[in-house]
Structures are given as C-alpha cells and as structure tokens.
Specification:
single chain, mainly beta, eight-stranded antiparallel barrel, 1 helix, 14% helix
Length: 244
C-alpha cells in the first residue's frame, strides 16, 4: 500500500469515528427533549369514600359535621319547584299574611342583608303570641353545586348572657358546631332598628340540621335564635289586599 492510500484509509477511519460521535450526542439530546415533553405519571384517582380510610386527615376538633338535610315529614308536601309547584317564599312582602306549621302570622317588617356577596332576607313575624319570631329566606349552594332555597323559621331562645365562641356550643342538651360568622350590612323595613347598619352574626349547626344563630347590632348585646329548616312548600302567604 502506498503512503497516499494509507493516509486516505486513516482519514476515512477518523471520519467514521467523528460521525459515530455526532450520532451518539444527537441521540442523547433527543432523548432529553423527549423526556421534557413527556407528561409525568398520572395522578392516582381516589375512589369515592377512600378519603375516609387510612391516611385521611381527621377533622379538626369543633368542626361541623357534614350536614344532611332532614327529610320532610311524610304528611308534608313533596319537593318541587318554588313558584310552580308551590308559592315562592321569595315573593313575600311586608304586610303579607303567611301560614306555616298550622299558625298564621303577619309579616311586620324585614331585614335585607348582604355579606361577602351573599344576600338573604329575614322577616319579622307576629302570630299573636308575643314571641320573637323571624322567617329567613336564602338561596345557598348545596353539596351538589346547585343552588337550593333554604327557608328557616327562627324562635328566640334565652342563652343567659352566652357569648358565641368559636368552638362547639351546647344549648338545651344539643351540641352545635360553628359554621360561619361575620358582619353583614342590612337595610331595615318596618322594624325597630336603624334604617341601615351593620349586624354581627355567628351561626352554628347541629348534626340533625337544627341551626343556632347569634346576632347583634354593633354596640348592642347578643341575641340568640334557633331554627329548623322547613320542607319545601310548607309556607303559603296572602297579600294584604287579598284579605280586605
């Protein structure tokens, strides 16, 4: 073999080695890019109810238990659509007469409240018994994400100077868990309160659905009420003009 041929062979070997090195580097870089584009391992789905098994975070002391609405009594009206299957209580106005739980009451006044984007109405009732009773009507999101109409009939309950603590309260042998508290803005109509103002409140709920609430005008003493959610269609009402 001549010296020229030997040089050519050596150059060919060097070229092959360089080409192999380039291909190896390119393959490694391509592998890294593919790894960046590839998604990570999918999140493991949690079967329904598994959150209550081993490894679940226990509820904090004093936290309210999950609320399951109490079913309507068998003799009560069936669930339906407000304004279609039964009168819509959101249409009640001051001066109307309502019938609820076998008693007739006059709507003497109202508080229109708002807090953190939520709005609700509390109607002052007079059933002739001189009891301090209110009817609250609010549209609230349920556990299914849909909006539900919540109607509560409130009765004053003596708490002997009890202050609404941030922990569990026991009233008349029933344990109530804190739900929410805050300060709502209100506008009054026909009530012995300022036309506008701020109302502090603290709400509690028992495992059976009963509700306990503390309210006070800022600068005044706390008042407490308890209530049970009313089944749909349990209220009928009449306009003042219809009764004359």
């Amino acid at each position: 073999m001549t010296s020229g041929a030997a040089v050519a062979v050596e150059l060919g070997v060097v070229a092959l080695i360089l080409l192999a090195g380039v291909l190896l580097v390119a393959a490694r870089r391509g592998g890294r890019r593919s790894a960046r584009r590839s998604p990570g391992p999918p999140a493991r789905a949690v079967p329904p109810g598994a959150e209550t098994g081993a490894g679940a975070v226990p509820p904090s002391p004093g936290a309210a238990p999950p609320f399951t609405p109490s079913p309507a009594s068998p003799s009560g009206p069936e669930a339906g659509h407000a304004g279609v299957d039964y009168p819509d209580p959101r249409a009640i106005k001051v001066g109307d007469t309502i019938e609820c739980q076998g008693a007739r009451s006059r709507v003497m006044g109202a508080l229109y409240l708002s807090w953190q984007g939520n709005q609700w109405v509390e109607y002052l009732l007079d059933d002739g018994s001189r009891r301090d009773r209110w009817l609250s009507i609010e549209t609230r999101p349920g556990s299914d994400g849909a909006l539900h109409l919540e109607v509560l009939l409130w009765t004053r309950v003596p708490t002997q100077g009890m202050i609404p603590a941030k922990t569990t309260l026991t009233v008349e042998g029933v344990e109530f868990f804190p739900v929410e508290r805050g300060t709502a803005a209100f506008r009054g109509e026909g009530v012995s309160m300022p036309e506008r103002g701020l109302l502090d409140f603290a709400d509690y709920r028992a495992a059976d659905g009963r509700v306990l609430s503390f309210e006070r005008l800022q600068g005044h003493r706390w008042r407490s009420f308890h209530a049970q959610p009313l089944p749909p269609g349990s209220i009928t009402f009449h306009r003042r003009a219809d009764l004359t």
